[in-house]
Amino acid sequence: MNIDRNAPVGVFDSGIGGLTVAREIMRNLPSEKIVYFGDTARVPYGSKSKDTVLRYSRQIVHFLKNQGVKAIVVACNTASALALGDIKKELDIPIIGVIDAGAKVAAAETKNKKIGVIGTVATIDSGIHERVLKELCPQVQVIGKACPLFCPLVEEGWLHDDVTTKVAERYLEELKVCGIDTLILGCTHYPLIRSTIREVMGENVRLVNPAYETALELRDLLSELDLTGQENAQEEFPYRFYVSDLAEKFTDFANSILPYDVSMTQKIDIEKY
Hints:
Layout: E1 9-13, H1 19-28, E2 34-38, H2 50-66, E3 71-74, H3 77-82, H4 84-90, E4 95-96, H5 99-109, E5 114-119, H6 121-126, H7 128-136, E6 141-146, H8 150-155, H9 162-178, E7 182-185, H10 194-201, E8 206-208, H11 210-224, E9 239-243, H12 247-257, E10 266-267
Parallel strand pairs: 1-2, 1-3, 2-9, 3-4, 5-6, 5-7, 7-8, 9-10
């Protein structure tokens, strides 16, 4: 595979949620450069059709390829559920999503074989977590719950707000009644309200953050393909950020959660790709 090992990794999401994946890559793969794209003009993906999500994802992948990335992380559960399978067949560089890694941990961690999954309407309706979990552990019971208001609340920055807590209590009640012992945060926005979800679900429910698990999967994949970046290949600005809208707002938010000072985010016309 003739790919430059010191090229950046491409990461994309419908908005800011994928920054949770970028954050874990920064922490766990410090020698890797990142090109991040957030589709802030067209967020959320969770209420859109498969055809639309696939078209958006293809445009973003085309853009990232133009940036010379060596691998791509689809840091969006909806795009991972609806577009990853098709795009993987069309691509000549490695690409991974955020669903498999989290599912593996959940299947290994659950004691009572009752696993909850929260995500967008499209992700939950796709049934992809249940399919993957059943392959890993046939006797597992999977309870999915769409939580469509979580994304706009996170995008609004209401991470520690009474409104977010009230919404979480209403959404998660069903999962508490079912007696799950493991909960997959099936949208990359959700780790940003992890403390609220933890408060509502209680200490006895294991929360699985696929962002962290996906970073580890990327590390293993790059190592396996001999594509691990080298420390001395670091640039002065190893992380580049692009969005389809609201660049200043994105920059402010990125600086509030990333272990890196984001000086600028560039807005691009993604429809050109």
